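USER:
Class, as today's exercise, take the chain set out below, and explain how the chain folds.
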Amino acid sequence: MQRVMIGRRIGRILRVASVALVLAGAARAEAARSVAPECRSGPTRHETLAGLGERGEMVLASGGRAVLDGIRWPMEDDGAARAWMLNHRDRALTLVPRGEIDRWSRVHVDAAVSDEAVDLAGGLIEAGLAYADAGERDTLCRPALLTLESGARSAARGLWRAGVREGRDGAALREMTGHFIVAQGRIVNVGERPARTYLDFARRGEDGLTVTVSKRTWRRLRERGLSAAALRGRLVRVRGIVEAWRGPTLDIASADMIEVLDEERTLRR
C-alpha cells in the first residue's frame, strides 16, 4: 500500500512538473526572441473554468473572461471544440496572461490544467479542433503551435479532414468568403505598392488567391529575408479570412502567418 501511495505522489509531482514545463516553454521562447508587446507575459494566475461563451471565450469562476492566445476558434461547427474545453470545466487552471486586455475586455492567456499535463491551446490544436493563428495581433507568441498543427494536419484530424485550400482554385475560395481558411500554393507574382504588397497565387487572367500585406508586415518579412525576389516562385502556406475584392483575397496582419514550404511539393488532403 505504501508503494502505491508513493507511486501516486510521484505521478502527481510529474504531472505538475509537466504543466510547469508547458508554461515555461513559452517563457523560454519569449526570452530567446525580441518580445513583441502583445507577447509579454504577466503574473501567473490560478483560476477555474466555469463555462464557455461565444467562439471559445473562457468564463472564469472569478467572473473574468479570457481567450486562449494563438488559436483560431472554428467559426462553423464548434461542438467538438466546446466539448473538449468543457471537459476541463471546474478544474483548476494555471494562466499566464499575454499582452494587454483586448477591445472586448478579455485577457489573452496561455492556460494549463494545474494537476495534469494538459496545455489547453496545444491540446485543441493537436486534436485538430482549432487553428494556430495570431488573430488581430502582429505576432504568434507561441510559434510551436504551428508544429503541433502540422501533426494534426498530416493525420487529417478534426478540422483538417477538409484539407488545405488550393491557392489557384478561385471558384472554391470565393465560396469561403467571410470564413477563415488555410491555403497554400506558389507565389507567381509580387506587386509592391506604397501602402500594400500583393502576393498573387495565379497569373494575370487566371482565377486564384491574392494575399495583401500591410506596409508594416511587409517590412518585417523583408527583415526575415523574404523580399519580392525571394518570395516569387516559392511554395507558401497562408491563413486568414477570405474577402471578395476582384477575386478571393486574404489580408495578412502577421508575418508569422506566411510559412515558406519549399520542401513540400503537394497539398496534404
Q: What stands out?
A: The radius of gyration is 20 Å. Confidence is low (pLDDT under 50) at residues 1-22, 24-33, 264-269. The CA atoms of residues 8 and 129 lie 31 Å apart.
